[in-house]
Write a structure and sequence with these properties.
The complex is a heterodimer of chains A (68) and B (153). Chain A is mostly helical. Chain A has five helices and two strands, in the order E-H-H-H-H-H-E. The chains are: A mainly alpha (68), B mainly alpha (153). The interface between A and B is small, with 13 and 8 residues.
Chain lengths: 68, 153
């Protein structure tokens, strides 16, 4: 699943460590999310979206092909 | 149950429980060492390798307890370190990796036991029975865990 975390973070001049600290995960998790190697849980997706003041759909781009 | 005991949402409480568990393990290990010294060191009914095993097991238990106790105590005394440890332990990606690693390790162990059983059955019946018992226990534990989890979800 694609996401706009990196773009949103850079636009707001927020470091990966700051975002990780704000949503309660490690910096490595943010790196993995940005690289698309890890898909966030619903809870984490909600925390990240709320941090940016957006909805989950605005941050995480759901692709029909990702569906099981 | 262990996860619920050690993985409380209140990390400070979880650390205090770990400290208690560490002290318990340390006491148990020390008791084992004491029993070895008083009852087994000078001989006794057990063979040498069994005595060595019990001593090693007791020392390992005491060491693990001491490490658990000291780590929990250190984290309770240093809030910054505690925060870092909490994030590391409760990070969902780390937890996901650990769970997958457990699942993979279990699967590999099961298949290796099956492969070893094919060899052992021709060499040593006792070893074959032990391997079969391990596989049966694993399968039973898997089914029980699956049933219990399915009821909760």
């Amino acid at each position: 699943m694609d996401n706009r975390i990196s773009a949103l973070r850079k636009a707001r001049r927020i470091s990966q460590a700051e975002l990780a600290d704000a949503v309660g995960v490690t910096r490595q998790t943010i790196i993995s999310l940005e690289n698309g190697r890890y898909n966030a849980s619903l809870l984490l997706a909600h925390k990240i979206a709320r941090y940016f003041g957006l909805t989950i759909e605005d941050v995480f781009l759901f692709d029909e092909e990702d569906a099981p | 149950m262990l996860c619920q005991f050690f993985g409380s949402s209140d990390y400070g409480r979880s650390l205090r429980r770990r400290r208690l568990a560490g002290a318990g393990l340390l006491a148990l290990g020390a008791l084992g060492c004491l029993c070895y010294t008083l009852l087994l060191r000078s001989g006794g009914p057990l063979p040498g390798y069994a005595r060595s095993f019990y001593l090693g097991f007791s020392c390992g238990l005491a060491l693990a307890g001491a490490v658990l106790l000291l780590r929990a105590q250190r984290l309770l005394a240093h809030p910054q370190e505690q925060k870092r440890a909490r994030v590391r332990e409760q990070d969902e990606r780390e937890q996901s990796i650990t769970l997958r690693a457990f699942a993979l390790a279990g699967l590999i162990t099961f298949y290796l036991c099956a492969a070893a059983l094919l060899v052992a059955v021709a060499v040593d019946r006792t070893v074959a029975k032990a391997l079969l018992a391990v596989m049966a226990v694993y399968a039973a534990a898997f089914l029980a865990a699956r049933w219990a989890l399915a009821k909760r979800m």
